[in-house]
């Protein structure tokens, strides 16, 4: 018997009903929140300052911790050799501040990547404009992180940015509108702002978690902790739980490997990919920070990973030109790395993605991509591999459709049933390697004509 | 000063004149040959036997050596874990025959991949039908290789194939028509047959080389010698030079790394990729076989590599939906592997390929793909990398267009000039890593709407 994991189940249930072929319906991905779900002790704001040409389109945002105790910070950053200036600045600030930070500033419209010395100076100017406008902090060296996204190789209109930051500082709030404005300031080719919030119990207290991310193309992140420092996937996870910097980094690295590093739109890893985590302890001013040794740590880590997966999946739903949301689940692998590598290989296959777009049950391509995954020799035994389509929760017939069993194709695949399964927005491809117990999930979208149109002339 | 390498120069000159935007013009890629350019001592034939539904479309071909001395054989085969049955059979035959073979049989329309035990029996039946129909051979254990290409997971109509082989054996010729028929029998989504022939001097004699290949999609080969045995790029290089099996394998491995393993259409490595080499010595019956120690060996190896590159480039010209032919050249790298890995990363980037389709000088994507290439830490120094567009030979202005110099973007890139360069069918992207002396080239095509259309519903 097959039990859907919680994450996949939620992804499926997001699709309300059976659908006609076409772009993913995004309306129901913008959720409305009341003010009390957002973490305590943060102020946020967003505005249009002129990085983007179109008036009124938000392109600059800030978040600042207003908590009296030092705010723990962690980051996972792109492993691309060409790190954008904001990635360099964030890396240095994390080291200087000993894992403490004040907040961050983000702009969209220009990535400030491959911009040489001036680009680096501009990123520092953004950081300093925020830090210097905030009240004195108890945490020595704690600064403001920087995130930028947009076109590579162009300079920021830095005066417009630094000129607008004081106004944003004067306008810091924690209202649903302020959080949504901040999420809008992250957007480039995104078609909807990506904001989520939740609360959970930790050490007997209610703590809150807010998250924002962005991304629709150039999505194949592979981020690690700042050493070695090396995404245009941007995101932030802010909590009012009290967590030590080391524990926050450990939890974030774990969460990112199982969320943002397990999604793909087009297989291109950006120069700017950045996921920040902030924990200001405002929910429990009287409690010490959780460390990796705390009994609460695994609870926090799993909550963070689950929340990160929810946010990461939104990026795939908004994948450039996407009409399908595909979960690739690899089970019974020798270890997580093999499972993850196979899932990544299938999720990144252009031929698989085109077949999904065409609603073509071409499982040969799935197997082919499984076979060329870059795993150690012997990690896959072709005669133990099984492949199954798992129908979306919106399908009337919920039974899995087996395509391949232990390396042998099923004798009579019900193509009509396959067509019904593939007509849904959501699909899960289950790959059972049959030689271990480890599991990994990867989320991807299909490859459509619209993707080519969007990316054939991005800059104009 | 920049000097175009010989291969790139030939590729450029293939484009006769300036062009309107649209699919690659393929008419001038089918060349006419006279009978005397084909290697001596081979008979070839092709027919329609019924693997493909459409009457008259060639789907079965054979090549047999008619030389009296044993024919040396070598192969580079897919490294995909899911090896198709014909790959398994070819691997075993190469071992059994101690590097000797009689010829090969090829079919298109069905890949005989992931077809279990029956598939393996079918592949052996194809091989045996050819071998048993040929006269007795002096080379003990020498058999007939097998190649299949087409849909994965379906069984061959084996009786139609084995039933047609005796007729093909009775029809073996070395006429231009017979060679072209054999080339046509390789075709699947290919839009033109890929046949080349040339002659050169070796040890004072004229030797001849004929080559056929096929491929238009699922093209990102990574083939090695049979150990470890692990390609739907199919090809054969047949010569009448006398070369020992070991020397032939060494020369083929070298040639494939610099040709078929250095092309990409969509980044998907097939279960069937196979390149065969045969050397029957018919041009010089009185000479001993060349070994790796022979002074002639480097001459033969370079001729084979150059010829293989010509054939490999034809696959890219015929890339599914391709409108552009792009040469990615990485220079001044620490070693060949780094150069090759960077070139492969750029050539496989969907975002780079979409930008080429859109004729958009988005060099940031080139740099981005350079930065995420899977090379050892420190192999790329971002502050030493330069990127340049090299215009096609058809451009009036032949001067290179520098985009990035030692990590700093050029101040004023002439976008009008970039548009003119990008409007041509051919383009070379030159990436100078600035930290070594090694070089590699990779050939790729752009990513078009037509690619998505072709692959959205391949099986119907």
From TrEMBL, chains A, B:
Residues flagged as site, Cleavage: 231-232
Recorded catalytic activity of this chain's protein: N(2)-acetyl-L-ornithine + L-glutamate = N-acetyl-L-glutamate + L-ornithine; L-glutamate + acetyl-CoA = N-acetyl-L-glutamate + CoA + H(+)
Pathways per UniProt: Amino-acid biosynthesis; L-arginine biosynthesis; N(2)-acetyl-L-ornithine from L-glutamate: step 1/4; Amino-acid biosynthesis; L-arginine biosynthesis; L-ornithine and N-acetyl-L-glutamate from L-glutamate and N(2)-acetyl-L-ornithine (cyclic): step 1/1
Enzyme class: transferase
Keyword Transferase applies: yes
Entry coiled-coil feature ranges: none
Entries under Pfam families matching the protein: ArgJ
UniProt keyword list: Acyltransferase, Amino-acid biosynthesis, Arginine biosynthesis, Autocatalytic cleavage, Mitochondrion, Multifunctional enzyme, Transferase
Example of a GO cellular component annotation carried by this entry: mitochondrial matrix
Protein family: Belongs to the ArgJ family.
Protein's name according to its UniProt entry: Arginine biosynthesis bifunctional protein ArgJ, mitochondrial
Organism: Cutaneotrichosporon cavernicola
Name of the encoding gene: ECM42
């Amino acid at each position: 018997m097959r039990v859907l994991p919680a994450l996949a189940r939620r992804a499926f249930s997001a699709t309300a009903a059976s659908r006609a072929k076409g772009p993913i319906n995004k309306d129901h991905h913008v959720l409305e929140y009341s003010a009390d779900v957002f973490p305590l002790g943060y102020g946020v704001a967003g505005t249009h300052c002129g990085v983007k040409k179109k008036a009124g389109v938000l392109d600059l945002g800030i978040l600042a911790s207003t908590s009296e105790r030092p705010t723990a910070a962690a980051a996972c950053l792109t492993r691309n050799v060409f790190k954008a200036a904001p990635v360099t600045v964030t890396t240095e600030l994390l080291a200087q501040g000993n894992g403490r930070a004040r907040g961050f500033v983000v702009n969209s419209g220009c990535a400030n990547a491959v911009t040489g010395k001036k680009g680096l100076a501009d990123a520092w100017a953004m950081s300093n404009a925020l830090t210097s406008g905030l009240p004195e902090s108890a945490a020595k060296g704690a600064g403001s992180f920087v995130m930028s996204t947009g076109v590579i190789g162009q300079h920021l209109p830095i005066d417009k940015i630094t000129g607008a930051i004081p106004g944003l500082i004067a306008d810091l709030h924690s209202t649903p509108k302020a959080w949504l404005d901040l999420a809008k300031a992250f957007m480039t080719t995104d078609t909807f702002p990506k904001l989520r919030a939740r609360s959970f119990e930790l050490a007997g207290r209610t703590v809150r978690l807010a998250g924002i991310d962005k991304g629709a193309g150039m999505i194949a992140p592979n981020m690690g902790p700042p050493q070695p420092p090396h995404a245009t996937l941007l995101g932030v996870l802010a909590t009012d739980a009290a967590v030590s910097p080391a524990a926050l980094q450990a939890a974030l690295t774990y969460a990112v490997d199982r969320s943002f590093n397990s999604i793909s739109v087009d297989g291109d890893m950006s120069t700017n990919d950045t996921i920040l985590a902030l924990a200001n302890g405002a929910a429990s001013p009287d409690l010490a920070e959780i460390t990796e040794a705390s009994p609460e740590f695994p609870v926090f880590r799993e909550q963070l990973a689950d929340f990160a997966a929810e946010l990461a999946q939104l990026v795939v739903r908004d994948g450039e030109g996407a009409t399908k949301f595909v979960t690739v689940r690899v089970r019974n692998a020798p270890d997580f790395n093999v499972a993850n590598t196979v899932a990544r290989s299938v999720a990144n296959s252009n031929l698989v993605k085109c077949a999904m777009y065409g609603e073509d049950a071409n499982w040969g391509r799935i197997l082919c991509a499984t076979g060329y995954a870059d795993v150690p020799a012997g990690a896959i035994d072709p005669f133990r591999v099984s492949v199954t389509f798992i129908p979306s929760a919106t399908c009337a017939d919920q039974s899995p459709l087996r395509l391949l069993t232990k390396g042998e194709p099923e004798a009579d695949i019900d193509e009509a049933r396959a067509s019904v399964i593939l007509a849904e927005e959501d699909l899960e491809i289950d790959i059972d390697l049959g030689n271990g117990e480890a599991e990994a999930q990867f989320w991807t979208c299909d490859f459509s004509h619209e993707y080519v149109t969007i990316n054939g002339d991005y800059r104009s």
